[in-house]
Amino acid sequence: MNFxxxxxxxxxxTEALRSLVRETRLHPGxxxxxxxxxxxxxxxxxxxxxxGVFNLSVDEALKEASACAALGIGGLLLFGLPSEKDEQATxxxxxxxxxxxxxxxxxxxxxLDSLVLMSDVCVCEYTSHGHCGVVKRDGDRFEVDxxxxxxxxxxxxxxxxxxxxxxxxxxxxxxxxxxxxxEALDHNGHDQTPILSYASKFSSAFxxxxxxxxxxxxxxxxxxxxxxxxxxxxEAMREIELDLAExxxxxxxxxxxxxxxVLHEARQRFEVPTGAxxxxxxxxxxxxxFERGWLEPERAMMESLLSIRRAGADFIVTYFAKEAARILG
Length: 329
Ligand code: PBG
Description:
By secondary structure, the chain is of the alpha/beta class. The chain has a single domain (25-328), classed as Aldolase class I (TIM Barrel), CATH 3.20.20.70. The chain is built from twelve helices and twelve strands. Strands 1, 2, 3, 4, 5, 8, 9, 10, 11 and 12 form a ten-stranded mixed sheet that branches. The chain has a two-stranded antiparallel sheet with strand order 6-7. A hairpin with a 7-residue loop joins strand 2 (44-46) and strand 3 (54-56). Helix 4 (98-108) packs parallel to helix 5 (146-163). 45% of the residues are buried. Ligand PBG is lined by residues 120, 122, 124, 132, 171-172, 207, 210-211, 216, 279-280.
């Protein structure tokens, strides 16, 4: 059967018809909003490259969380800016660390129970050199030392679970971290805490604005010896298989829009809940175009999120979460 019997436009004529046959939908409960927590009180410091995003002290984060809960947003993903950094990333796993303090405050407020509290497990915001693990130096060469680093990540995840994280989300891309985290959680009474693994995180230029937000730019070198090469889809699938074998409960694909094929492939191959992270650079470049009047903000934002969902994301971590939730009602 073909034209003129078939006319595809018949089902596009009115919004009612279009709504009836819509294949993909977004809803606020599948959006996760990242928060950057900073020490102090009453602090709401704008991030220049990310309009509308702030470094928040714990009291301000509580207000932001209430707004998210009221909008029906599914959860928060917490990052921390410690007051001090060192070689061992002490601030990442300290019981009174900045993320742990925020988690306790958020958990205490029962009006926020509808929000799933996720915490990013990585040490780059807490190391003096800005790498995602312990660094071994030899003159001007350096290496991120895998096995001692995953011990720190396990400690970090455990301290976050103790402080009230509902889900821990390792984003470092070192080998064996999921197994190390699972073991630390299980041996310490947290066998019910799920691990959301950024299993195939690519070494991406699109993290640039985040590094301003989280003050986590590496002081030397780059992250290419641990984050993945953007050219490799098969390797990404292998990373995912390994993380699932080590006990990951869920996947977080990242970045989102430049890697929709990777997200789609993961969705086809694996049966676990899979999210995508629309990262800082994806947000900033859209905002830059909004500011110049080059793109229609609402439509471009919703289209970017819909494309990520259509490619296979069950949930989306996005700096647009509040605006999108407002539109979705
Ligand atoms: C920490 C981490 C990063 C992001 C999430 N977790 C930065 C990085 O790997 O350099 C990026 C998020 C974003 O760009 O929005 N390792």
